[in-house]
UniProtKB/TrEMBL annotation:
Cofactor: heme
Cofactor note: Binds 1 heme group per subunit.
Family membership noted in the UniProt record: Belongs to the truncated hemoglobin family. Group I subfamily.
Superkingdom field: Bacteria
Source species: Arenimonas malthae CC-JY-1
Keyword terms, alphabetized: Heme, Iron, Metal-binding, Oxygen transport, Signal, Transport
Molecular function as annotated in GO: heme binding; metal ion binding; oxygen binding; oxygen carrier activity
Protein name according to UniProt: Group 1 truncated hemoglobin
Residue sites binding heme per the record: H71
Residues shown, of full length: 23 to 141 of 141
């Protein structure tokens, strides 16, 4: 990613605040909340921070499972995926992240779609 993207996300503290905003929205989103009922949210929070930090070019290493491994058997639909992306955009808006920076992150997450949504 282009230099400066990590900074536009507010660095590590900005990304931590973003993931918190995202998880609050996901857990209140009746379309997908139930799918997170039995999830270790501390782990999910920490892995998402690492992942987003790495994807925006920050000095972080993603230590979680692959997207295919972690979403296998969860029967995630296209609609579920779109709902989560919508929640992410709302969280980025709430954090005041510029639209162009948002789109750069979304472009990096988009190819993960094939490993997350069930065939
Ligand atoms: C771009 C979209 C997505 C990204 C980047 C993403 C990222 C992640 C990450 C980093 C983890 C943690 C992996 C680990 O623990 O090692 C995870 C787990 C999980 N994700 Fe996603 N995810 C996405 C979409 C979705 C969607 C659409 C759903 C369902 C509505 C979903 C449901 C889950 C669940 C339930 C877990 C926990 C699985 C477990 O602990 O067994 N994810 N995801």
């Amino acid at each position: 990613p282009r230099a400066g993207l990590y900074e536009q996300f507010g660095g590590r503290p900005g990304i931590e605040a973003l993931v918190e905003e995202l998880l609050v929205r996901v857990l209140e989103d009746e379309r997908i909340a139930a799918q997170f009922a039995e999830v270790d949210l501390v782990n999910l929070n920490d892995r998402l921070v690492e992942q987003i930090c790495a994807e925006v070019g920050g000095p972080c290493e993603y230590t979680g499972r692959t997207m295919a491994e972690s979403h296998e058997g969860l029967a995630i639909t296209e609609a579920d995926f779109n709902a989560l992306v919508e929640d992410l955009v709302a969280a980025m808006d709430a954090r005041g992240i510029p639209r162009r920076a948002q789109n750069r992150l979304l472009a990096r997450l988009a190819p993960m779609h094939r490993d997350i949504v069930s065939p």
